[in-house]
Amino acid sequence: MSEKCTGQCQSSPTNNDLNNNHIDSDDFGGKFVSTFKVPKMDCPSEERLIRLAIEGISTTIGLQFDIPSRLVKVFHDDNLDEITNKVQSLNLGASLESTSESCSKEAAKARKLDQSNKASEMSALRWLLLINGVMFLVEVVAGVIAQSAGLIADSLDMFADAAVYGLAIYAVGKTVSLKLRAAHISGLLQVILALGALSEVIRRFIYGSEPISSLMMIFGGVALIANVACLFLIYRNKEDGAHMKASWIFSANDVIANVGVILAGLLVTLTDSRYPDLVIGLIISLVVLNGARRILQLKY
């Protein structure tokens, strides 16, 4: 049984709204609002998965994301079962927390917040895309020169970030089918690159390698600086828009991966062993591959 709202409830969308493929999902209220707890939602990849899955439903649906609290608020009509099935099919541990009638004040606040931050969010997303795209190229070249599986794998993490930010920019105003196609393309590219990095780890394990620890630490440090710059770009809006909250956590997680590469380089020096480099390369490659798997599982 859903809880009643004490204020005025939202009206249903008009036929023109339902037929408009360019509606921003955050602009729709719906008769009800349901909150889902999603324990495994900790970066933009999971947010995009949920958006693409739910936007495949024919009825226009509004979405609000609280990444730090792992919560998704869904404004909808009489289709909660279908929404629940879509969210839970992503295997992110989602569970329905509550459902109540949607209030006009609540939806209006969501719309106002979204509109006021949309311009600054888009500007930040473009900078994030540029930084991560450039660092992908820099790290992959440095990884080849340094014979470092860790640097090569970390470059893939940068590519995964760039793909997410690029998809977020591309998706604005696009139909669900185009969004899904773009997501699948980015997922396939991530799979190809991740498998390439894994094969490189295996090749270096079998035939040996001599990673240059100084280059690992230098370019791991450059990547760290780049991701710290991303954090500064996001900081002003990190509590405002859904993408900004997610991007803040995503870049913070990348900082951890960069520190891992630097630490692996230090251990290579101290132990005179290539295994720390192989281990960090394996871990980052598997993380990227798992993210790509989730994207490719998306369906209409």
TrEMBL record:
Keywords: Ion transport, Membrane, Transmembrane, Transmembrane helix, Transport, Zinc, Zinc transport. The chain crosses the membrane at residues 127-146, 158-176, 188-206, 212-235, 247-269, 275-292. It holds the Pfam family Cation_efflux. Residues 129-296 form the Cation efflux protein transmembrane domain. It comes from the Bacteria. This is Sodium:proton antiporter. The keyword Acyltransferase does not apply.
